Amino acid sequence: MKMKLTTLALGALMAAGPAMADLVFPSLSYRTGPYAAGGIPFADGYADYFTLLNERDGGIGGVPTKLLECETGYNTEKGVECYESTKGQGALVYQPLSTGITYQLIPKVTADGIPMHTMGYGRTSAANGEVFSNVFNYPANYWNGASGVVNYLLEVNDGDIKGKKVALVYHNSAYGKEPIRTLEELAKKHGFDLKTLPVDHPGQEQKSQWLQIRRDRPDYVVMWGWGVMNQVAVQEAANIRFNMENFIGVWWSGAEHDVIPAGDAANGFKAVTFHNVGSDFPVFDDIQKHVVDTGKAAGNGDQIGTVLYNRGLYAAMLAAEAAKTAQELHGTKDITPAMMRDGMEALEITEAKMAALGLPNFGPEFKVSCENHGGPGLVGVNQWDAATKTWSLISDFKPTDADVVGALVAEDSAAYASENNIEAGCK
Amino acid sequence: MSDQFLFATEVFINGLMAGVLYALVALGFVLIYKASGIFNYAQGVMALFAAMTLVGIMEGQVPFSHIINAIFGTEVHHFGWHVPALLAILLTVGVMVVFAWLVQRVVMRHLVGQEPIILFMATIGLAYFLEGFSDLMWGSEIKTLDIGLPQGGSFLIEDMTAGLGSDNFYGFFIDNLDIVATGIAVLLVMALVAFSQYTKQGRAMRAVADDHQAALSVGISLNFIWVMVWSVAGFVALVAGIVWGTKSGVQFSLSLIALKALPVLMLGGFTSIPGAIVGGLIIGVGEKLFEFAIGPMVGGATENWFAYVLALLFLVFRPQGLFGDKIIERV
Predict the structure, then answer these.
(1) Secretion signal: which residues (chain A) (predicted)?
(2) CA nearest B247 in A: which residue?
(3) Shortest Cα distance from B256 to chain A (angstroms)?
(4) Mind listing the pLDDT tens digit for each residue in A260-281?
(5) Residues of chain A with CATH 3.40.50.2300
(6) Predicted pLDDT of residue A21
(7) In terms of CATH architecture, what is A142-273?
């Protein structure tokens, strides 16, 4: 009897958990709640890329991948629960898609020796790998985004924005407040006048903020929004007839669903980005053939090529390439989270590699190092065309202000190191 | 007139308009509370569900298509037709009536005679159920709702008032949608008052609200009245969902507009239809003027918390709200 129970228990364990050889990638997604509209396409892109690798290539280096999806609802407590419940299942890298969850997980992943990738969000100063050994935020972070916005304003004003009035409409949360310090520094450097306008969660009601913008008549409005805040802001901007050409958002404010509800009035709205948009890349043909047509897509296939689907796919591709790098680096196909961390730190993305993956000109080339977990911080600009309902890249990926961003990263990471008794340095 | 005074007037007018939108949500709470003593936590989610159903019907979306496709391996999403807005609204009202009947049959009927807190807890459960059910039925992506309501600032008002101030004053900004919403709210309140005062069912509803036992003793069906009240609340939720959904697209956040109704109810009273309107206007104007005058000094984003502070201030002097019934309990 005892023997039978032990066998049953073992069998149940084996059935419940992934096979030992699987490369496990948790997906802390949010398909429900107020931010689901952004969470779903990202999660679909992330899942579909790993499905593609399994179906087309038999996994990474011949080892199948396994996606562990856990619903966070964009709620920090639930995100931490997801982490705790999945970390023991061989999780190689976490991508929480939430700045709040990221902040909570930084000490945990560091203690547990599991890497975390927060692409375009999270704690910006994690770019300093000498302090944040297990956190990576390549290829760009919030402060690159803020600098990218200012660079664009400089570009369209022949390099002079002195005296210009810039209003920042931001989500009144840790996420929304991230760019303020950078923009303040850049305002000092370039002489523009910055005004900040917070919008409380969820952002359904923004009349006061937009009446103020109408009174102040800023030359440009910059938006750091997420969820319903984006749709309402674009609509309110249209209502007060603010010139959409002068309205520019961060990459989390520049998806299709952020602008479609406003209809034609949203035409010309811009958003910075760190990757390309659209479905005109060979990898999508493979996804159609191996994932969608075989009924294995995470969604119903209608999100392919959308901004956030592409971002999820890009995040998955970078994770897969880091896993490949780790396999090569350590000479084994069954990598551990510690090996994955090494792979991420040694990751090099070249245009030749991107083209071979079916993603030519999709994102910038970069090389990660122990000192720099944040990548090159190259930022481009997308613009919305309401007639064709498409985003298009209207500028190349350009360098951001390394002097300002670098100094802020050094300052903030040094403060973190001091608070947490971390001895900075490369091991 | 000084520009500052004109700006404050503009904020005041927009506060009134915002207050009407808050009152639209608060009305649904009042109706159910008045007739059954239940604080319906699900009212915000009902607005979401109603708006999602309206868009789904208008666009010919196949309900539960994700489940159907997952089980049968099909690829059905749309019927291929578009339903005119008016017909879709009528069909959605029908869906809300069916929903009201189901709530009565499945939930409320089994809880007759229970403590109010039990009924409140049941509506919390109902809210969570309806959240998931809406997503399953219609999907959780953002939907554009366009039933022809105008949007954008009114050129006419802007032009007419532009000359009142200096060159820095561009005329009053008033959103056309807010003007229409005010008209809708006025009509809705008039219809609700007429219904409760001059129809047999309305009088029966008031009788139930006054005294359940007495109403039962004269042959009024409690079950029918509750289904009717939940149906009317469902209709009010649909109206709120249409107005708010037109502004921001139909998405989960619509369910959170209930948070905007709470201070309105605290201020106006849970049992008064005029209280919901007046409460909405006071909250709308109060929070907007506070944000205009004090917001910049304290970093902005004051509206959410100030609405509750304002409501609490009123509660100190009138615990039952401005128009609420005074409850006297003898020990």
Answers:
(1) 1-21
(2) A232
(3) 8
(4) 999 999 999 999 999 999 999 9
(5) 20-140+279-376, 142-273
(6) 64
(7) 3-Layer(aba) Sandwich (3.40)
